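lol ok so funny story. i was supposed to be doing the assay writeup but got distracted and ended up predicting the structure for this chain instead. priorities right. anyway since i did it might as well share w the group, maybe its usefull for someone
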Amino acid sequence: MKADAVFEGGGVRGIAFTGAVEAMEEYGYEWERLAGTSAGAVIAALLASGYTGAEMKNILASIEYSEFLGKTILNRIPFVGSGLELFIHLGLYHSDNLERWLEGLLEKKGIRTFADLPEGKLKIIASDISNGRLLILPDHLEQYNLEPKDLKVATAVKMSASIPFFFRPVIWKSKRKRTSYIVDGGLLSNFPIWIFDKESPRWPTFGFRFVKEEIDSEGVKINNPVDLFKSMFKTMLQAHDLRYINERTKERTVRIYTDGITATEFDLTADQIEFLYNSGYHAAQTFLSGWDFETHKAKRMQLKHIET
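and the output, tada:
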Protein backbone atom coordinates (compact mmCIF):
# COMPACT_ATOMS: atom_id res chain seq x y z
CA MET A 1 0.00 0.00 0.00
CA LYS A 2 1.29 3.43 -0.94
CA ALA A 3 1.34 6.38 1.45
CA ASP A 4 2.98 9.76 1.90
CA ALA A 5 4.45 10.70 5.28
CA VAL A 6 5.05 14.05 6.98
CA PHE A 7 7.15 14.27 10.16
CA GLU A 8 7.04 17.02 12.76
CA GLY A 9 10.19 18.59 14.13
CA GLY A 10 11.10 17.29 17.54
CA GLY A 11 14.83 17.17 18.13
CA VAL A 12 16.22 14.03 19.75
CA ARG A 13 12.71 12.65 20.15
CA GLY A 14 12.83 11.71 16.46
CA ILE A 15 13.65 8.12 17.38
CA ALA A 16 9.98 7.76 18.32
CA PHE A 17 9.18 8.15 14.63
CA THR A 18 11.23 5.05 13.82
CA GLY A 19 8.94 2.94 16.00
CA ALA A 20 5.87 4.38 14.30
CA VAL A 21 7.35 3.87 10.84
CA GLU A 22 8.28 0.27 11.60
CA ALA A 23 4.72 -0.49 12.73
CA MET A 24 3.32 1.08 9.56
CA GLU A 25 5.73 -0.88 7.36
CA GLU A 26 4.82 -4.12 9.10
CA TYR A 27 1.22 -3.34 8.24
CA GLY A 28 2.20 -3.13 4.56
CA TYR A 29 2.71 0.58 3.86
CA GLU A 30 5.39 1.77 1.43
CA TRP A 31 6.45 5.41 1.32
CA GLU A 32 5.79 7.25 -1.93
CA ARG A 33 6.70 10.81 -0.87
CA LEU A 34 8.19 12.15 2.35
CA ALA A 35 8.54 15.50 4.07
CA GLY A 36 9.75 16.77 7.40
CA THR A 37 11.03 19.58 9.55
CA SER A 38 14.10 19.46 11.82
CA ALA A 39 14.34 15.95 13.36
CA GLY A 40 11.45 15.00 11.10
CA ALA A 41 13.63 15.98 8.15
CA VAL A 42 16.27 13.45 9.29
CA ILE A 43 13.67 10.67 9.32
CA ALA A 44 12.20 11.72 5.98
CA ALA A 45 15.63 11.85 4.34
CA LEU A 46 16.63 8.41 5.59
CA LEU A 47 13.35 6.85 4.44
CA ALA A 48 13.56 8.57 1.05
CA SER A 49 17.05 7.13 0.55
CA GLY A 50 15.83 3.60 1.19
CA TYR A 51 16.29 2.92 4.91
CA THR A 52 13.51 1.03 6.69
CA GLY A 53 12.06 1.77 10.11
CA ALA A 54 13.89 -1.22 11.59
CA GLU A 55 17.21 -0.07 10.13
CA MET A 56 16.70 3.44 11.45
CA LYS A 57 15.94 2.15 14.92
CA ASN A 58 19.31 0.38 15.05
CA ILE A 59 21.07 3.48 13.79
CA LEU A 60 19.39 6.02 16.08
CA ALA A 61 19.52 3.81 19.16
CA SER A 62 23.29 3.38 18.93
CA ILE A 63 24.48 6.97 18.51
CA GLU A 64 25.63 9.45 21.13
CA TYR A 65 23.26 12.38 20.66
CA SER A 66 25.57 14.68 22.59
CA GLU A 67 28.04 14.40 19.69
CA PHE A 68 25.63 16.45 17.57
CA LEU A 69 26.38 19.44 19.81
CA GLY A 70 29.34 20.75 17.88
CA LYS A 71 31.53 22.56 20.37
CA THR A 72 34.50 24.86 19.89
CA ILE A 73 37.21 26.13 22.20
CA LEU A 74 34.92 28.99 23.17
CA ASN A 75 32.29 26.58 24.51
CA ARG A 76 34.84 25.27 26.99
CA ILE A 77 35.61 28.65 28.54
CA PRO A 78 33.78 28.83 31.89
CA PHE A 79 31.01 31.41 32.39
CA VAL A 80 31.57 33.56 29.27
CA GLY A 81 32.44 31.01 26.59
CA SER A 82 28.93 30.12 25.48
CA GLY A 83 27.95 33.78 25.48
CA LEU A 84 30.87 34.61 23.19
CA GLU A 85 29.97 31.70 20.90
CA LEU A 86 26.40 32.97 20.66
CA PHE A 87 27.50 36.57 20.06
CA ILE A 88 30.09 35.70 17.38
CA HIS A 89 28.39 32.84 15.55
CA LEU A 90 24.71 33.47 16.45
CA GLY A 91 24.38 30.00 17.95
CA LEU A 92 25.69 28.06 20.95
CA TYR A 93 26.80 25.06 18.86
CA HIS A 94 27.55 24.20 15.25
CA SER A 95 25.69 21.35 13.54
CA ASP A 96 28.47 20.14 11.23
CA ASN A 97 28.56 16.79 13.06
CA LEU A 98 24.92 16.14 12.21
CA GLU A 99 25.56 16.96 8.56
CA ARG A 100 28.60 14.65 8.32
CA TRP A 101 26.79 11.81 10.10
CA LEU A 102 23.77 12.00 7.83
CA GLU A 103 25.88 12.47 4.70
CA GLY A 104 27.69 9.21 5.46
CA LEU A 105 24.42 7.31 5.90
CA LEU A 106 22.92 8.68 2.71
CA GLU A 107 26.01 7.91 0.66
CA LYS A 108 25.68 4.25 1.65
CA LYS A 109 22.42 4.31 -0.30
CA GLY A 110 23.91 6.20 -3.23
CA ILE A 111 22.29 9.53 -2.27
CA ARG A 112 24.21 12.78 -2.13
CA THR A 113 22.17 15.61 -3.66
CA PHE A 114 18.48 15.98 -4.40
CA ALA A 115 19.25 15.06 -8.00
CA ASP A 116 19.97 11.51 -6.81
CA LEU A 117 16.36 11.09 -5.64
CA PRO A 118 13.23 10.66 -7.79
CA GLU A 119 11.57 14.02 -8.47
CA GLY A 120 9.14 14.92 -5.70
CA LYS A 121 10.32 12.10 -3.42
CA LEU A 122 11.57 14.30 -0.57
CA LYS A 123 10.72 17.78 0.70
CA ILE A 124 12.63 19.46 3.53
CA ILE A 125 11.25 22.51 5.34
CA ALA A 126 13.58 25.34 6.40
CA SER A 127 13.29 29.07 7.11
CA ASP A 128 15.15 31.82 5.23
CA ILE A 129 15.23 34.60 7.82
CA SER A 130 17.20 36.93 5.53
CA ASN A 131 14.33 37.05 3.06
CA GLY A 132 11.50 36.24 5.46
CA ARG A 133 10.25 33.15 3.65
CA LEU A 134 9.44 29.51 4.16
CA LEU A 135 11.76 27.22 2.22
CA ILE A 136 10.56 23.97 0.69
CA LEU A 137 13.64 22.17 -0.59
CA PRO A 138 14.33 21.35 -3.35
CA ASP A 139 11.19 23.08 -4.75
CA HIS A 140 12.38 26.61 -4.03
CA LEU A 141 15.95 26.21 -5.26
CA GLU A 142 15.17 28.02 -8.49
CA GLN A 143 14.52 31.18 -6.47
CA TYR A 144 18.24 31.07 -5.62
CA ASN A 145 19.30 30.21 -9.18
CA LEU A 146 20.16 26.68 -8.04
CA GLU A 147 19.21 23.18 -9.17
CA PRO A 148 18.64 19.93 -7.22
CA LYS A 149 22.18 18.81 -8.07
CA ASP A 150 23.55 21.90 -6.31
CA LEU A 151 22.27 21.04 -2.83
CA LYS A 152 23.24 18.06 -0.70
CA VAL A 153 20.35 16.42 1.11
CA ALA A 154 22.38 16.38 4.33
CA THR A 155 22.94 20.14 4.06
CA ALA A 156 19.21 20.77 3.60
CA VAL A 157 18.50 18.70 6.72
CA LYS A 158 21.15 20.65 8.61
CA MET A 159 19.36 23.86 7.60
CA SER A 160 16.02 22.50 8.75
CA ALA A 161 17.44 21.40 12.12
CA SER A 162 19.26 24.65 12.99
CA ILE A 163 17.26 25.65 16.06
CA PRO A 164 17.68 29.45 16.41
CA PHE A 165 20.28 30.47 19.01
CA PHE A 166 20.86 26.82 19.94
CA PHE A 167 22.61 25.97 16.65
CA ARG A 168 24.34 28.39 14.32
CA PRO A 169 22.28 29.43 11.31
CA VAL A 170 23.45 28.03 7.99
CA ILE A 171 24.97 30.82 5.91
CA TRP A 172 23.99 29.98 2.33
CA LYS A 173 25.37 31.67 -0.76
CA SER A 174 23.53 31.26 -4.03
CA LYS A 175 25.05 31.44 -7.50
CA ARG A 176 23.97 35.08 -7.56
CA LYS A 177 26.37 35.68 -4.66
CA ARG A 178 23.50 36.56 -2.36
CA THR A 179 23.83 35.45 1.25
CA SER A 180 20.92 34.03 3.22
CA TYR A 181 20.75 32.91 6.83
CA ILE A 182 18.79 29.66 7.07
CA VAL A 183 17.37 28.27 10.32
CA ASP A 184 15.00 25.61 11.65
CA GLY A 185 11.97 25.02 9.44
CA GLY A 186 9.86 24.83 12.58
CA LEU A 187 10.06 28.60 12.82
CA LEU A 188 7.46 28.77 10.03
CA SER A 189 6.02 25.26 9.81
CA ASN A 190 6.92 22.58 12.33
CA PHE A 191 4.30 20.15 11.02
CA PRO A 192 3.81 20.66 7.25
CA ILE A 193 0.90 18.20 6.97
CA TRP A 194 -0.49 20.30 4.11
CA ILE A 195 2.44 19.77 1.78
CA PHE A 196 1.07 16.84 -0.25
CA ASP A 197 -2.63 17.69 -0.03
CA LYS A 198 -4.75 17.51 -3.15
CA GLU A 199 -8.44 17.37 -3.96
CA SER A 200 -8.81 13.61 -4.52
CA PRO A 201 -5.73 11.75 -3.23
CA ARG A 202 -5.03 8.25 -4.58
CA TRP A 203 -3.35 7.24 -1.34
CA PRO A 204 -3.23 8.71 2.19
CA THR A 205 -0.84 11.24 3.64
CA PHE A 206 -0.03 10.33 7.23
CA GLY A 207 1.27 12.86 9.73
CA PHE A 208 3.55 11.92 12.61
CA ARG A 209 3.73 14.33 15.51
CA PHE A 210 4.14 14.49 19.26
CA VAL A 211 1.23 14.93 21.65
CA LYS A 212 0.78 18.67 21.91
CA GLU A 213 -2.19 20.35 20.30
CA GLU A 214 -2.81 23.47 22.31
CA ILE A 215 -0.71 26.51 23.06
CA ASP A 216 0.27 26.70 26.72
CA SER A 217 -1.74 29.46 28.34
CA GLU A 218 -1.03 28.82 31.99
CA GLY A 219 2.04 28.38 34.10
CA VAL A 220 4.39 30.39 31.86
CA LYS A 221 6.60 32.65 33.96
CA ILE A 222 8.50 35.42 32.20
CA ASN A 223 11.11 36.94 34.47
CA ASN A 224 13.78 38.05 32.03
CA PRO A 225 14.48 38.60 28.30
CA VAL A 226 15.52 34.95 27.82
CA ASP A 227 12.18 33.73 29.18
CA LEU A 228 10.42 36.22 26.92
CA PHE A 229 12.25 34.98 23.81
CA LYS A 230 11.65 31.32 24.64
CA SER A 231 7.94 31.91 25.13
CA MET A 232 7.66 33.92 21.92
CA PHE A 233 9.50 31.26 19.93
CA LYS A 234 7.43 28.43 21.41
CA THR A 235 4.23 30.30 20.58
CA MET A 236 5.34 30.84 16.98
CA LEU A 237 6.18 27.17 16.54
CA GLN A 238 2.79 26.04 17.79
CA ALA A 239 0.49 28.76 16.46
CA HIS A 240 1.38 28.47 12.76
CA ASP A 241 0.52 24.82 12.42
CA LEU A 242 -2.59 24.92 14.61
CA ARG A 243 -4.33 26.44 11.59
CA TYR A 244 -3.96 23.09 9.84
CA ILE A 245 -4.86 20.85 12.78
CA ASN A 246 -8.52 20.28 12.03
CA GLU A 247 -10.70 17.19 11.77
CA ARG A 248 -9.23 16.30 8.37
CA THR A 249 -5.68 16.29 9.71
CA LYS A 250 -6.28 14.86 13.16
CA GLU A 251 -7.68 11.59 11.92
CA ARG A 252 -4.71 10.95 9.62
CA THR A 253 -2.08 11.84 12.21
CA VAL A 254 -0.21 9.42 14.47
CA ARG A 255 0.17 11.19 17.81
CA ILE A 256 3.08 10.04 19.96
CA TYR A 257 3.45 10.52 23.71
CA THR A 258 6.95 11.57 24.85
CA ASP A 259 6.59 11.61 28.65
CA GLY A 260 7.98 15.12 28.92
CA ILE A 261 11.23 14.43 27.04
CA THR A 262 12.16 17.69 25.33
CA ALA A 263 13.59 18.32 21.88
CA THR A 264 17.00 19.38 23.18
CA GLU A 265 17.74 16.63 25.73
CA PHE A 266 20.89 15.42 24.02
CA ASP A 267 21.84 13.15 26.92
CA LEU A 268 19.13 10.52 26.43
CA THR A 269 19.53 7.32 28.42
CA ALA A 270 19.07 3.85 26.93
CA ASP A 271 15.76 3.59 28.79
CA GLN A 272 14.51 6.88 27.34
CA ILE A 273 15.48 5.80 23.82
CA GLU A 274 13.63 2.51 24.26
CA PHE A 275 10.61 4.33 25.69
CA LEU A 276 10.40 6.73 22.74
CA TYR A 277 10.71 3.92 20.20
CA ASN A 278 8.01 1.84 21.92
CA SER A 279 5.77 4.88 22.28
CA GLY A 280 5.94 5.50 18.54
CA TYR A 281 5.40 1.84 17.71
CA HIS A 282 2.31 1.48 19.91
CA ALA A 283 0.91 4.85 18.80
CA ALA A 284 1.00 3.67 15.17
CA GLN A 285 -0.58 0.33 16.07
CA THR A 286 -3.42 2.12 17.88
CA PHE A 287 -3.86 4.49 14.95
CA LEU A 288 -4.02 1.68 12.40
CA SER A 289 -6.66 -0.18 14.41
CA GLY A 290 -9.13 2.60 13.62
CA TRP A 291 -7.91 3.80 10.22
CA ASP A 292 -9.78 3.41 6.94
CA PHE A 293 -8.80 5.43 3.87
CA GLU A 294 -12.20 5.31 2.18
CA THR A 295 -13.90 6.53 5.34
CA HIS A 296 -11.34 9.31 5.60
CA LYS A 297 -11.98 10.46 2.03
CA ALA A 298 -15.75 10.45 2.60
CA LYS A 299 -15.32 12.61 5.73
CA ARG A 300 -13.08 15.00 3.81
CA MET A 301 -15.74 15.53 1.19
CA GLN A 302 -18.40 16.01 3.85
CA LEU A 303 -16.30 18.55 5.76
CA LYS A 304 -15.46 20.41 2.57
CA HIS A 305 -19.17 20.68 1.72
CA ILE A 306 -19.91 22.05 5.20
CA GLU A 307 -17.03 24.55 5.02
CA THR A 308 -18.15 25.90 1.64
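The beta strands are 2-7, 30-37, 91-93, 122-128, 133-137, 165-167, 170-173, 179-184, 205-210, 253-256. The chain has a mean pLDDT of 83.
back to the writeup now i swear
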